[in-house]
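Re-running the complex after MR caught last week's input typo. The corrected sequence lines follow. Everything else is unchanged.
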Amino acid sequence: MVEPGLYMTVAAVLFFIGALGMLVRRNALVMFMCIELMLNAVNLTLISAGRAMNDLNGQVAVFFILVVAAAEVVVGLAIIVAIFRRRSTASVDELNEMRG
Amino acid sequence: MVESFVFVLMAIAAIAGAVTVVVARNPVYSAIGLLGTLFSVAVLYVLQLAHFVAAVQIIVYAGAVLTLFLFVIMLIGVDKDETREENLPFQRKAVFGLGGAIILVAAGLALFTDFEWVPAASNALIPEATNGTIEAVAESLFTDWVLAFEATALLLTIAAAGAIALAHYRRRDT
Amino acid sequence: MTELIWIVIALPLLAAVVLHFAGRRLGEPLSGWLASAAIGASFVFALVAALPFVDGGADASTVLLWDWMPAIGASFEIQWDPLSALMTLVVTGVGTLIHVFAIGYMHNDGRFGRFFTYLNLFAASMLTLVLAGNFAMLFLGWELVGLCSYLLIGFWFDRPSASAAAKKAFVVNRIGDFGFMIALMLVFTRFGTLSFAGVFEQAPEVLTTGTATAIGLLLLVGAAGKSAQVPLYVWLPDAMEGPTPVSALIHAATMVTAGVYVIARTAAIFDLAPVASTTVATVGAVTALWAASIALAQRDIKKVLAYSTVSQLGYMFLAVGSTAYVAGIFHLMTHAFFKALLFLGAGAVIHAMNDEQDMHKMGGLLKRMPVTGITMGIATLAIAGIPPLAGFWSKDEILASSFERGGWFSVLFVVGLITALLTAFYMTRQWVLVFLGEPRWDEGVEPHRAPSVMGVPLIILAVLSAVGGLVNTPFRATLEHYLEPVFEGISLLHPPEGIGLFIVLAGLSVFAALVGGGAAYMTYRRPVGAWQRFEEGLQPLWGTWEDAYRVDDLYGKTLVAPGRKLAEISAFGVDLPLIDGAVNGVAGLFLGIGQRLRPLQTGYVRNYAALLLAGAVVVVGWLLAGGL
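Corrected-run output:
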């Protein structure tokens, strides 16, 4: 039997890759995908924790996170589309007017 | 035994997919990488007896969210590959620094503290308790978490309406 | 009746308040008459309340109005005894006459109503001072009269010289007040209370000679400031910038006598400090001679009178310093009569001469202004000390007491005698220059008679100057008996007994007066050129006297200039760079921090994401490592 801790390690690595990916990529869509990566990592952690604590609420939580993530993707992509229509670019670096 | 083997395989696949997401130049390749990660994670869910969630993951995440991503990629038409150079000052340094810091913190935690992933974990895992069948999850959802459930329904509606409002194509001429 | 004595203070105070709000509407001359009525009513009231004291029938009483600071023995209490009653009568009596005079003098002035507001306020303050039953209330009145003096000297504030003079008066007085306050603090630490009753009764037990001397000398400092003695007299000549009724009331008859009153009142303390008393007398004598010499050479009619006031105050200090308190108060009273008369007369002259004040430009006014001339002549004789006018009796009592005391006081007696000669000289000089001889005024000046509203007070004061001295002659010492209860238990110096000695001393002073007066008459009666040659012949001495020994210059160089320098350093060297700099520096610091932190806001989402991640790592790492 694989210990839940190992699953969590995998999730941690996924999260790590997603986080650094956010910092490195310029394309808004790819950044979004990295966010999805991080969310998935969190979901995996929750499932494993629920398993380790013999609690079904871990999976229930994951369910809700899934739903929310879906809603978030919908709205986020709509925003990206709207921005792209204005500026014909999907690069996040172009959107830098709010600075000091 | 089987579980370990599948676990290792799926773990490697997930991480490989994640790396693809980050590294690939073409966003479509990144989307494919994400797809791989999503599938692998779904299998990991199954390994942990979260069957319902795994199914939902595939249907919703891989099926709907990823498709949506691909649609938008096509719509926006980012066919130009992204270059590898970095325009922002300090960003490279920040990335390496943060990466190193996180690894150091993790190493420190693992080696020098008595770190436990789940401190309240028991050694005996009860399969019945966490068998994520539809019945089990549904029972929890519709009794303990019914309010949150209805709220998410509302949330989805609002999200859909919001997306339409945001992305509505207005003709330039009256 | 005595419980209502506070009405004496309340009436002018109330009138001042009314005039403050309604003075402009009441207008000329109604506001003036209202003010005069208020102070006149106070006089009548005080007179009635003082009658029981005359035959020695009544005792002193203290009327408590309300508690102010009971912890230190300070409350609004009025001490009604023969001394305060006499002072009240002088203040209100002479004050009423001056108020009436001012109605005529301030005619057509734009701020007529305000003048009388201030005059009545001054009257109320002075009455607070003389009626006070404890040191705190006394000091309150002391400060208030200083304030009113400032307001009245600088009444024509659009004249820079007037506002400068007002400031000078206030500042020099403040120096004296400093001494006064320290004296009060000493009294409080020794006695634990500030009320007169408490202090004077216990003085012999509580005070050592040293402490009493200290208190006495400090009170002298305060009195010297208020009563214009050396070296704090310099404000009084400048105070002549104010309207003449102000000079008459404040700087001749009342405020400047506050110092003398205080020393007389605190006689119990001076009784224990002979050194302090002697110092008071010496200061007085020196001042008398000093000021008289300056008065010899003055050209301005009011400046002569100002220095004359300083000199006569010196006489009063000489008296109270030699513990002849009655003599001092007596001279205070007679001086109020004839000096007020002199000032008011001078005011009438100035008024008639279109504000000309240089005596070299007057002359021959006796024909044009007979009433003024005659009354001022009476006052001149009185101040010179010609019997049987008032000044003779009081001045002679002072000189006789000083002679009787002997020792060092004999020297002071001689000083006083010389001063009497000089007094007669400069006063006669003034009268001759103004009223006799050929007219010397400029074109267009038409001297005219004073209106009766100005003339009647002059006549009344002349009568008082003539007969006022008869209250205390060696033949019938009414005043002394009247004031006896106040100085019970205190060594009071009486004038010498014996008609023989009296005639000798009187003869000496009269002789001095005649010599001085005669010399002046002879010199100045001659045509113009003669006395000018006389004055020039006495140069450079005459010039020094005319410049008042250049004391103001000296003070300016040694005190004012360093003070100004100090102020400049404080303002521009300390306040501006250091304090403003510190405050501005703090603001600048934050501005700088903000400027330096600005580049953090790059506008790039990825930078922000990096920062977010860094923060999260720190927090999570710390939490996981077991901290909270």
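None of the earlier attempt is carried over here. The domain at 4-90 of chain A is CATH 1.10.287.3510 (Helix Hairpins). The mean pLDDT of chain A is 89.
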